[in-house]
Amino acid sequence: MNNKLSLLTQKKQKLDGFRPLPLELVKNLDEWFKVELTYTSNAIEGNTLTRAETALVVEKGITVQGKSLTEHLEATNHVDALEYVKTLVGKKRQDITEQDILDINRLILNKIEAVNAGRYRTQHARLTETDVILPNPVKIPELMEEFMGWLVGDNSDHVAKIGADAHFKLVSIHPFSDGNGRTSRLLMNLLFMQEGYPPAIVRKEDRLAYINSLEKAQKGGGLDDFYNLIYEAVDRSLDIYLEALQPERESLAEPIPAQRFYTTDEVARLLQVDPESVRRYVRRGILRAVKLGGKFIRIDKADLDRFIEQLKTTRTGLTQ
After folding, report:
1. Where does CATH 1.10.3290.10 sit in the chain?
2. Is 158 designated active site?
3. CA 103 from chain center: how many Å?
């Protein structure tokens, strides 16, 4: 586990070597992370908006036919909560207050559960996908006081571990009637961003592993699985930044090296299609990409592999 944390530190130091980052790149990455964080965090909780639909809602203000008002509000609310979190990045971890956490939840539940937004639950709660027993509501104020004491206390652990621990501790207290997972993930990412790390994305396809890792730890089985999942998410986000900052490979005639992210032209070569076909796959929302400089230039190898398997399964021609 320490080796993984050391690798994160090395990549963070490499990223720091590029600072100050180009403003246009930062803007484009911020926009991509805004949509991706909103889409994935809500999808984990059961929101059915697709990635492309989420982008339409949060970037264009467009209503998606067939989707509920609540799902639209969950998207716009998450963006509002994320923007609020960004205003706290200039704080130190030791300066985070209990009110900050209440405000994150208030924004997440705004116009959805107005009575409960930003307030601790007063009713017993049960999780639908697990038999984990949650704390009695009368204990929540005391548990949150203990949590805040830990959060702002001296801690020499790596920030990735502190963030993961903060997420686990808060979601296990389950202080709110709803929005506990989204609040916990945003708090975790606040801690990362305060230390100059990009936010970590828990992907929709990792939902089951994520839930199982939390349940395992809550039942006393240890946090290793959860740490691994979060550290991999941090690592993936660092790679997005680092590969976006790397100069374009000069010759497309050379073999494509093993890497996590590929450019549009490299994906086209791997799929043996033209670059416009790749862009079409991205626009249709069936292939995920990081959009920079007005073009799609970074595609995750894991997403590419899944896309290829999907094509094989559905027997869809690559050029259709």
Report:
1. 2-245
2. no
3. 19
| Average pLDDT of the residues in 272-281 | 86
- Give the gyration radius of the chain's Cα atoms: 20
- What DSSP assignment string belongs to 257-271? PP-SEE-HHHHHHHH
Catalytic residue among 72, 78, 167, 174: 174
Say how far apart CA 136 and CA 175 lie, in whole Å: 10
- The CATH fold assigned to 261-314 is Multidrug-efflux Transporter Regulator; Chain: A; Domain 2 (1.10.1660)
When pLDDT is cut at 50, 70 and 90, the band that residue 292 belongs to is: low
Paired with 291 in beta bridges are: 296
Spatial CB neighbours of 198, under 8 Å, sequence gap ≥ 6: 29, 33, 192, 234, 237, 238, 240, 241
The CATH classification number of 2-245 equals 1.10.3290.10
User: pLDDT tens, 49-102?
Assistant: 998 899 999 999 999 999 999 999 999 999 999 999 999 999 999 999 999 999
pTM equals 0.88
Q: What is the pLDDT of residues 181-226, one digit of tens each?
A: 999 999 999 999 999 999 999 999 999 999 999 999 999 999 999 9
- For CATH 1.10.1660.10, the residue range(s) in the chain are 261-314
- Decide if 296 contacts 290 (C-beta within 8 A): yes
